[in-house]
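Minutes, project check-in
Item: structure for the 205-residue chain
Input as provided by the requester:
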Amino acid sequence: MTMTAPRTPPPRAQRFSGLDGLRAIAVALVLVYHLFPGVLPGGFLGVDVFFAISGFLITSLLLRELEAHGRIRLLAFWQRRARRLLPALALVLLVCTSLALLVQGDLLVRIGSQLAGASLFVSNWVFIANGADYFARDTPELFRNTWSLSIEEQFYIFWPAIVLLASAIALADDRGIPRDKVGGTVQEACPKELIAQREWLVPPR
């Protein structure tokens, strides 16, 4: 009878109580900007604040996992992000599209490309390709605001790999290994679970 090692639970998110207030302020700035643009013309900068806070929280989570286990479970990380975002996004797309079909008119302009962009988290690139202007008020797209969610998801996809590579380079420097050797063994060592371990990126001396 073989015994299997218990799975390591993902690191719990550390609570930064002060950031809750900053996030609330950022959301309030964006809401005031959309509802009363003349009152707070720079309120859209609340999106930048929200991005910065999200980046800090995700990076701290990744670094804690890397420090505790020497690896980042990429697939598990992406699955957690998907469970948090996909159900709500699917509901929003379904309800808003159904209402738009009832109302008709300008709400259906480029609705197909908007749905594809929002579903695949590439809305920002879709709007750029279509020449859309976020600040224009005469050509409103129904899902224009999903551009920020798309950027956030793209960050979730690529940032863990960048954090891992930076950690591997730091580890190589500590071991006195040339940086051009980093990453040479990752293709041979990457398992099906997509557990990226920094030691795989750094060859022995």
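Outcome recorded: The first strand starts at residue 71 and ends at 73.
No further action items on this chain.
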